[in-house]
From TrEMBL:
UniProt topology in membrane: Multi-pass membrane protein
Name assigned to this protein: Maltose/maltodextrin transport system permease protein
Keyword Membrane belongs to the record: yes
All copies of domain ABC transmembrane type-1, residue ranges: 228-452
Domain of life according to the entry: Bacteria
């Protein structure tokens, strides 16, 4: 009886939270095993076929998943109903977990445009190979082998060298057993099919500990603190201005006695409906100091042209104005939607009691809108804290400001500072430093979010 009941027992899924966690863990283990097998097979393939494409890793992983999935179902028959989670887990691991893991890892390395783990084309040297294909000589080398390969060992044992054929099209990586002067002895003979004419080194990625964080905080007065202060000011000012504008317009347009209110709503909704890229580029043209329509109009009134995008202070004002234009329709729509949930009987009773329109707004409307607006304001602050698009499209972080890092100019926020460091920093991309900045942004955002939630009473509501 026990033997007959065993398959049925295995077919019964665990119940409750335990069942969900068990299913997720089994599926995650299935994916992990498939990736591991795919990586091992791809490594073997690369050894056998040096020119094998990198996408073979994905091919081998998918094949391993196809083979392991039926075996997993045979072991856990009840898992059939949970296999719909597999695509979700793949996307979460590929687009959320993996980027986070890589970002944390790179923050403690020297990964940059100069240290990318790829062959150094700038250090390429003419090379000759001896008859038994085990020694590479660089006749034009004017430094020591240790300095050339950037190796820690004196004889460069275990270091990697890259060989090129006469077409210099396909790099061949080989291990170095020892090095002396300009001659490098290989751990294994070079491939017979390669006619070596050039060689170079690898721009190695290495761990540097907390060096990136030390660099950030050593220059905090030139980048971190001013950028952080402007980021908080920008996010807070934006949400206050947008909320006030949206609230006022929403209350005015909700008035059922207002004629043509639907037309007004449609017109005021247009800034939100137009794509941000188009709107911001339009404002760039409008704010042009010499030819923009804004300064042209001010000139007719006898006002001197304002450097909207060329002065640090006015550039910040311009960003707040444009973000107000882009954001108030959302707040207006949210206000109108929230007002529709308030019972009209409250206003009728207040009007009978002799309350003025202003007293109705302050005594009924605003208190009842508080619960609806709290999550909207918190999410709006979090969004604008990392609102990279408006900064990049309108000012690109500029204009330049004296005493600041080239990657952290007057209107740069934390996210644009990280972007500039990663992709447009002077002297080449610095992905490791940008990853360290991303970690700092994460902890700052987490701290601000906790303070916001606590101030809004979110935790107390959750406990209830």
């Amino acid at each position: 009886m026990t033997a007959l009941a065993s398959p049925r027992t295995r077919a019964v899924p665990p119940q409750g939270t335990r069942g969900i966690l068990t299913a997720i863990l089994i599926l995650a283990a299935l994916l992990g095993a498939s990736v591991l097998i795919g990586w091992l097979l791809a490594s073997v393939t690369a050894q056998v076929i040096p020119g094998a494409p990198a996408y073979l890793l994905l091919v081998w992983t998918l094949l391993a998943l196809v083979i392991l999935a039926p075996l997993t179902l045979r072991t856990f028959p009840w898992l059939t109903n949970w296999f719909y989670l597999l695509p979700a887990l793949v996307f979460i691991l590929a687009f959320t977990v993996l980027p986070v893991v890589l970002t944390v890892n790179y923050a403690f390395t020297n990964y940059s445009g100069q240290n990318s783990g790829n062959p150094d084309s700038a250090a390429r040297q003419d090379a000759t190979l001896n008859a038994d294909r085990t020694q590479v000589t660089l006749p034009g080398l004017d430094s020591t082998a240790q300095a050339y390969l950037n190796c820690s060992a004196t004889n460069c044992a275990g270091a990697t060298m890259v060989l090129y054929d006469e077409d210099a099209s396909v790099p061949y990586r080989v291990k170095v057993a020892s090095a002396q002067d300009r001659t490098f002895t290989l751990a294994a003979p070079a491939p017979a099919a390669v006619k070596v004419t050039q060689a170079t080194r690898i721009n190695r990625i290495s761990y540097v500990g907390l060096a990136n964080f030390q660099e950030i905080f050593s220059k905090a007065s030139r980048a971190l603190w001013p950028v952080f202060l402007w980021t908080v000011t920008f996010a807070f000012s934006t949400i206050v201005l947008n909320a006030l504008a949206g609230l006022i317009l929403g209350i005015l347009l909700y008035n059922k006695r207002l004629k043509g209110r639907n037309v007004y709503r449609t017109l005021l909704f247009l800034p939100w409906a137009i794509p941000t890229v188009i709107s911001v580029q339009m404002w760039v043209a409008l704010f042009n100091q010499q030819f923009g329509i804004v300064n042209k109009t001010l000139g007719l009134l006898g006002i001197v042209a304002i450097p909207w995008l060329n002065d640090p202070l006015w550039a910040k004002v311009s960003i707040l104005m444009v973000n107000l234009w882009l954001g108030f329709p959302y707040m207006m729509t949210a206000t109108i939607s929230a007002l529709s949930t308030i019972n009209d009987d409250l206003y009728e009773a207040a009007e009978i009691d002799g309350a003025s329109r202003w007293q109705q707004i302050t005594g009924i409307t605003l208190p009842l809108l508080r619960n609806s607006f709290t999550p909207i304001l918190l999410s709006g602050f979090a969004f604008n804290f990392n609102n990279f698009g408006i900064i990049y499209l309108l000012t690109a972080g500029g204009p330049a400001q004296e005493g600041r890092e080239s990657t952290a100019q007057s209107t740069d926020i934390l996210l644009s500072w990280g972007y500039n460091t990663a992709f447009v920093s002077a002297g080449g991309q610095n992905f490791a430093l940008a990853s360290a900045i991303a970690l700092i942004i994460f902890f700052l955002t987490l701290a601000i979010s906790i303070v916001n939630f606590k101030a809004a009473g979110v935790f107390e509501e959750a406990r209830k």
